[in-house]
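Quick one, probably user error.
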């Protein structure tokens, strides 16, 4: 009897162990299946991502003098812009992905179609932004060679931005017959578009290059002859290329009015290239925000070219307010107008960035 009981228990234990083993085996298969599913999904994601990376995406924009695309604050409103310059001055393509024969040929066809359909103005500039391009193969380079040859025949100036120096050299090497004046390279779109705008202005709006006395510029802004009373309170100074008007972190004891030349506000960090915030031309002020708020400078300002700049100190402003309230009132009216124009320019820039 005892033997039968022990034998029965043994069978039960064996069955339990067998079922347990089957369960463990089943769980092992489930875990393995789940692992395989995860790996497959991972590979699918990698393949999909690779396809997305290698599918070239092209974003197209038109370049006009009032596009607001630049970090460049110049005074255009005092000069009449010819109606013929109000439309299509250039063409911008922001490229993203991988470039090979098919995609490069598609870019070429888009450009040709755009130039052909531009009825209002002759397209003079075409900018390609390569900053998000992950690679170009030899067939893509051949297609770009055709594009560059065609652009030279049409008189269209190509502006390439966002390319590494080695890639710039390769483009030049592979297209040695292209005239240097018809192919330009810049580090980023900001500087590339600024160059295009400067070229357009130099060719069509010569009056913008005529430097006017500070009294004429102030009258044009405020429309009041008495504005000349402000000039004796300020001090003129000449700045050469590379000289600093303002250094980040300094006390804001002065504000500046640019009579002529060009200066740039930029962020500077040790070991890094400066980040341009804004380029300011004649007829504009700089440093006024920290000056009025009484805060430290949040950016540096350096002259890009020979510039004549008038500075007003906080002491001179207080002296003006106490001894000549009428002139102080004119000064504050002038400041409100210039600050409003600055806000308008920044608004246009933000809108352009949202659409880019």
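Nope, works fine. Designed sequence:
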């Amino acid at each position: 009897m005892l033997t039968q009981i022990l034998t029965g228990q043994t069978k039960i234990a064996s069955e339990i162990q067998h079922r347990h083993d089957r369960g463990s085996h089943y769980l092992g298969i489930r875990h393995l299946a789940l692992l395989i599913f995860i790996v497959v999904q991972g590979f699918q994601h990698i393949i999909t991502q690779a396809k997305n990376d290698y599918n070239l995406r092209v974003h197209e924009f038109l370049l006009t003098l009032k596009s607001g695309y630049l970090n460049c604050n110049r005074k255009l409103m005092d000069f009449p812009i010819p109606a013929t310059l109000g439309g299509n001055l250039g063409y911008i393509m922001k490229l993203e992905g991988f470039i090979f024969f098919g995609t490069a040929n598609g870019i070429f066809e888009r450009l040709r179609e755009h130039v052909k359909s531009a009825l209002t103005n002759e397209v003079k500039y075409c900018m390609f932004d390569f900053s998000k391009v992950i690679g170009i193969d030899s067939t893509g380079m051949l297609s770009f060679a055709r594009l560059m040859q065609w652009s030279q025949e049409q008189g269209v100036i190509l502006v390439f931005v966002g390319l590494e120096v080695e890639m710039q050299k390769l483009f030049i090497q592979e297209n040695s017959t292209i005239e240097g004046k018809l192919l330009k390279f810049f580090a980023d779109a900001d500087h590339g578009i600024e160059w295009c705008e400067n070229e357009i202005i130099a060719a069509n709006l010569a009056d913008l290059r005529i430097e006017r006395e500070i009294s004429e510029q102030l009258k044009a802004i405020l429309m009041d002859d008495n504005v000349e009373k402000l000039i004796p309170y300020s001090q003129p100074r000449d700045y050469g290329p590379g000289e600093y008007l303002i250094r980040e972190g300094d006390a804001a004891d002065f504000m500046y009015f640019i009579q002529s030349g060009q200066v740039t506000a930029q962020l500077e960090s040790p070991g890094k290239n400066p980040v341009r915030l804004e380029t300011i031309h004649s007829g504009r002020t700089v440093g006024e925000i920290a000056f009025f708020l009484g805060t430290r400078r949040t950016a540096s300002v350096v002259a890009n070219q020979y510039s004549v700049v008038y500075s007003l100190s906080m002491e001179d402003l207080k002296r003006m307010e106490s001894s000549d309230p009428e002139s102080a009132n004119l000064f504050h009216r002038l400041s409100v107008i210039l600050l409003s124009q600055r806000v308008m320019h920044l608004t246009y820039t933000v809108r352009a960035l949202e659409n880019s």
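The chain has a mean pLDDT of 75.
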